[in-house]
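ugh ok fine here u go
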Amino acid sequence: MTASAMSSSTPSPPPPARFASYGRHTWKEIAHLLTNLPLGVAGFVYVVTTLAMGCGLAVTVIGLPLLAGALLGARQIGKVERARARSLLGVRIDEPSPMPTHGHGFFSWLWSSLKDPVGWRAMLYGFMRLPWGVLTFTITLVGLFVLWPVLPYIVRGLANADRAMVRGLLSPSDELERRIVELESDRGVVVDTAAADLRRIERDLHDGAQARLVALAMGLGLAKEKLLEDPEAAARMVGEAHGEVKVALQELRDLARGIHPAVLTDRGLNAALSSVASRCTVPVKVTADLPTRPAAAIEGIAYFTVSELLQNVSKHSGARSASVEVWCADQRLLIQVQDDGHGGASLDGGTGMAGLADRLGAVDGLFVIDSPQGGPTTITAELPWRDREHAARG
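structure:
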């Protein structure tokens, strides 16, 4: 057998396993780096084009709306890039909060969009991606054919830089942005609550004291007319009017107590809560241990919270006794109302619990219900503590 025949019949050695040692994560990183260029080109073109058009036309009526729309589009670019980093780089980044709006209408939307930090950071990210994409695409592509033994190390370094860029520019601003949205929502709750309180006061005045005073004026007018011709009837009508005056005064006192009770202003939370407890239909033990008086706003919220909870005890709980404890711990004002009723209280039970939770949440407070069926019920409320003196100086 000739040498040529032997060589043709001998199987050739397998080619070197150039990429067999690359793990799944390495291939994902390579895919991310190679797609940096096309996506970087698209993002760069979008950012430069929209910024040039928006800024160039800012003197016209369409320039600023165009720029605002571009920032909203940049948010979508950031969303796509976060998803790509999540799937290929394993970077878990929370989505930013929705863009906050101050009021309603076109100009409110325009102003909120133009100062949206999420959109501007996404714009910066899109602008920076083109040069970075050219660099990573070139190094990775060349490394696949030339530097393959050390390519995993190069890829890991480039991917880590990508991870840092995504975290730095596309992550939400943690608590700041989320707090802005929470404050926007809380402000809406406060406004709605204040409007509801004003409507309640207006309704109580119109249907109660005002109607009674109108009837009183008419009665006194009739009594004046009968004063000479029928003194006994006039005296009887004046007596009735005197009774109406007493009822009207009591209604006005009750209304004033609902707005802000005098005992709370003059004597503080302990005395005010004792006054509320005395009007409850079940015996209530009140314990208040406070180093000083809290700020007036916090004191008022605490009072009305306990007042409404004790009304629920009277109307819905079927309890035989209840207790109210108020104390201060770790710069928080804590309130705990307990009763031995049948339980079953919840935020959606139609007893005003949801409104209380909203009011407390609007001032960075907490509202927790523990009310199993069969009882007992324990409701805990927390409010931020602030001394009255400190609040007055502030």
